[in-house]
Amino acid sequence: MTMVTPTLETERLLLRRPAPRDVEGFIGLMTSERSRHMGGPKTRAEAWRGFCTELAHWDMRGYGMFAVTMKGDDTCLGLIGPWFPEGWAEHEIGWTLWAAAEGRGIGAEAAQATRSWAYDELGWSTAVSYIAPENGRSRRLAERIGARIDPDAKHNFGEEPVLIYRHPSPEDLG
Amino acid sequence: MTTEAAKHAAALLAEHRKSIDRLDAVMIYTLAERFRLTQDVGRLKAEHELPPSDPAREERQIARLEALAQEADLDPAFARKFLNFVIAEVIRHHEQIRTGDA
Fold it and tell me: Angle B55-72/A136-144 helices, nearest 10 degrees?
């Protein structure tokens, strides 16, 4: 497993390891109605702890979700990338974008870059995204970047209704 | 409580329970009918190579049910969770029909 902290570059974006200064955007999202597809809304205190998990995932796993920024502006717009906390059945590519970043294709651009990175650098052979059925926006993103619902995939969320989108494999992507 | 009042309460309770039992039966038959229909839709989609799910339609359905729940004085969060559950199940069926697992 790689120990360097990578920075990924796409056409418009710079993806870096999240830092304490990114916390407010995360709290803003998780305390709002928009977070209802992700188990929210949370209290400010719960959201803060959630963000600590995002940061610590990098130490615990050697990777984690990337802070998404536009080139030339360090402001974090969301967290996107490989996610595999304890209890997850499979490696996930996760995404959460703050409201201000929506509708510009940023999610797709970042998700594809981090997926490639997970395949190339972490050696993942497959990845899924866990999405609530009602989260149309997120499902459309998954479909736009080639992920398809895998009806046979297992998850550990109990009775929680969740759709499991499976991403194209490294071979599928060529 | 007097014996008379206790008897009356017991009779009312029994009556309510009967109604609840009938409503449960209505719910089960309604759900069974709904799944029977969505299975047909799944086969239709598979035969005509249509996508097994339609996020935009499902999003609208959930919003509609949430509004209905509000009107009906039912907890909208509960309604949303319930429809999420049904939709996840239906999509799984459709995918299984499409890939020939069902």
Answer: 170
Test mutation, A130, A150, A163, chain B, max B CBs within 10 A: A163
Instruction: Please indicate whether, in this complex, the C-beta atoms of B80 and A159 are within 8 angstroms of each other.
Output: no
* Integer-rounded Cα radius of gyration of chain B: 20
Helix (H) or strand (E) holding A9: strand A8-9
A54-110 pLDDT, tens digit per residue, is 999 999 999 999 999 999 999 999 999 999 999 999 999 999 999 888 889 999 999
**Which chain A positions have a beta carbon within 8 Å of B55's beta carbon?**
136, 139-140, 143
Is residue A95 within 8 Å of residue A145, measured between CB atoms?
no
Residues 24-63 of B with CB under 8 A from A: 52-53, 55-56, 58-59, 62
Q: Provide ipTM, 2 decimals.
A: 0.70
Question: Rounded to a whole number, what is the distance in angstroms from the first to the last CA of chain B?
Answer: 58
CB-CB neighbours of A124 under 10 Å: 20
**Mean per-residue pLDDT, B89-95:** 87
Q: Tens digit of pLDDT for each residue in A123-157? A: 999 999 999 998 989 999 999 999 999 988 999 98
